[in-house]
Amino acid sequence: MSTLNAAENRGFRGPLDVTRAATAVLDTHGTVVGWSPTAQELLGYPSHEVLGHPIGALVVHPAGGHRTAADLPGAPFSRRQVLPMRHRDGRTLRVATAVLPLSHAGAGPARVLSLADADETEQWEALQAMLRGLATQSPVGLAIYDTQLRVVWTNFALVQEMGNSQYAGMGPDDMVTHGEVLSSRYPATLEEVMRRVLVTGEPVIELHYRGRPPVDPDHDHVWSCSYYRLQDAGSSSLGVCEETVDITARYLAQQRLDLLVRAGGQVGTTLDMARTAQELSAVIVPQFADAVTVDLLEEVLGGEQPTPGSEPTSSVVRVWGAPGQEAPGPTEARPGRRIDFPPDSPQARSLSSGRSVLERRLVTPGSDGRVPGSSRLVVPLRAEGATLGVVTFARDSHPDPFDTGEVAVADELVARAAVCIDNARRFTREHAAALMLQRSLLPQTLPRLTAVEMAYRYLPADSRAGVGGDWFDVIPLSGARVGLVVGDVVGHGLRAAATMGRLRTSVRVLARLDLAPDELLARLDDLIGQTADEQDAAFTESDSGTDHDGLGVTCLYAVYDPVSGLCRMSRAGHILPGVVDPATGSVTFPDLPAGPPLGLGGLPFESAELILPEGSLVAMFTDGLVRGRGRDVDAEFDRLRAVLTEHRRPLEELCDQAVGPLQPGSVDDDAALLLVRTRTLDRHQVAAWELEADPEEVGRARAAVAEQVGEWGLDDLVFTTELVVSELVTNAMRYASGPIQLRLIREQTLICEVSDTGHTSPHLRHAGSDDEGGRGLFLVAQMTLRWGTRHTSAGKTIWAEQALPS
């Protein structure tokens, strides 16, 4: 029989109680003079077999042992004991016995011997011991409520925890001050919870409840409460039993652990110092503190790291302290404002010592006589031995000041935030360096050219993406022509910026060779391929995942000739340019041959030729202008087309309008835009002559150019121009064949060009003292600004430029 069943069937009377036990009445000699039916049921002996016999005859003696008179139940006033007794069927039973002495006058029975099953007796006694322990020694608070949910009994632990007050007749929510249920999915009060248990019979386990007990009215406590319905043997409700355990320390430890876990997942999601400070505040307020402010040293915001052990400073810049959430201090400063803390302030002391400073202030007592505390906890932000700033935690409405455990939690929170802020500082420094490198590699100013009018915009991407590899350039070429280039190195960071710088330099060098656009891209493609091969040889296995510089490079290159109005374009995987007709204002994106991105190698590039009337507008740009996360490409092209249709407006205004919707830092890729309005040179600026391959033509050429230079009012240049023309025409007749063309261009310089059908370029050399020739090009080089050769499909052109008189 289980303990529960025994309690239900026989109540709280023990098995040895005379009302329940088997009884044997003994005389003074231990002889059985009375034998109850229950005794017969227990041991199997009918009364006529036992009466008149000593009770000791039923006790089984251990082998080789013996009992004294005091050990037998026949001895007077024997204590309760367990004896082995023989059943009538031969079995040995463990029987619990107890002796009850009888008092009467004269001769008669001397005592009553109670007999019961020893196992049942021990179970009952264990149950009684447990109940006494729960009532007097258990640390678990116990209370019993009747069906009206009024206290009818409490154990010692609950009385001790709540004080020595009498709780009889009180309700469950009357025993604490400001009580509230913390567990979700439960009613707001304990009375509602217990009423549900009373009605449904479903127990409630581990409900968390917060309140202030009478023994500690100034501090919140948290209890873990469990409730179950009490029923009698007939299943009628008697009330509700409540079990409570004070888990304040465990609850606070769990809350602090949860706080640290949440901070680990929510603080430092970006490489932005102000955003990190805001995330720290969002985790802390209002659970841990009423307000938080974050102040950083000014050099930290600039990406610099303070030197460990350097002279401490109390001057900082506030990066977080939202209006209405600022921690009151020596100064009420909004984010971005400089703060100079007084030397005796906790912030200045924390910056100086590098340790946390806790300060508590008393405020005016409330109507209840309590004196609430206002506390400030200042924790330094430290990384690699250097102090980056301070975090101030403020409690004004919080019931308790910061304790030792909370100071440790604050130190851990700030230590994690310091790592994130230091990472953001490093990123700021590296991003600033990469941005400075990128800007130094981009054109600082564009040259003023006669051939075109230009304007440009460069929009950096969001700083979190790093600097990009977009670039543009305008390159003056021989014959008043101009080279226009826009390129994009896919990726971000120092690698992309450095690659962009190398490519821009390479394009300028190749462009000076007067290569056709398709040939220039082919040479650039070979150069990038060679660079990638060299890097492959240098990569180790650990570097195998590094992106090659040569992959993902696009480029658009164009050469515009203001004399002919011809523009040759070639592209390597780049986005199409926009071209505006000056007469109609129509915007087209000419379908140029789609060459492969640079670096793939082995694939050809093609050029396309466009005739651009004077006043044509050409828009060359990178894909960051029209593509990006959450942006519709077709809609962006339509927007750009709408801007370009207003082509008669100043180019600077058109640039602003084109990039206006894209605020700096709001795009995830750099955007470069180059707008070019074409011009043409009229007949008053260009003169050309066709010459026969006859030595006498040299004199005619000198006379023609002298007359033309004089008409232009450049009399000071007549002699040098005659000398240059004489040398270049003579060389063309001597080393080439076919017709020879002579052309003068008056632009920002005086340009002299001689074209022939030969493909061999002349070389400048120093003639010996006894050489009869070889000094012509040397004289040309000495008397002009610069000279050179460019190859054409029909041959070559040798040109020389002279500076115009001031």
Q: Which term fits the overall shape?
A: rod-shaped
**Rg, Cα atoms, Å:** 51 Å
Number of helices: 18
- The low-confidence runs, each spanning 5 or more residues with pLDDT under 50, are 1-11, 74-78, 322-333, 537-550
Oligomer: single chain
Strands of the widest sheet, in order across it, are: 7-6-11-10-9-8
Distance between the termini: 125 Å
Q: Structural class of the helices, strands and pairings? A: alpha+beta
Q: How helix-rich are the residues, as a percent range? A: 25-40%
Strand residue percentage = 25-35%
Average pLDDT rating: 82
Largest sheet: 6 strands, antiparallel
Quick overview of this protein structure:
By secondary structure, this protein is α+β, with helices and mostly antiparallel strands. It has 18 helices and 33 strands. The protein has a six-stranded antiparallel beta sheet with strand order 7-6-11-10-9-8, sandwiched between helices.
Model description:
The structure is a single chain. By secondary structure, the chain is of the alpha+beta class. The protein is built from 18 helices and 33 strands. The chain has a six-stranded antiparallel β-sheet with strand order 7-6-11-10-9-8, sandwiched between helices. A six-stranded antiparallel β-sheet has the order 14-13-12-17-16-15, sandwiched between helices.
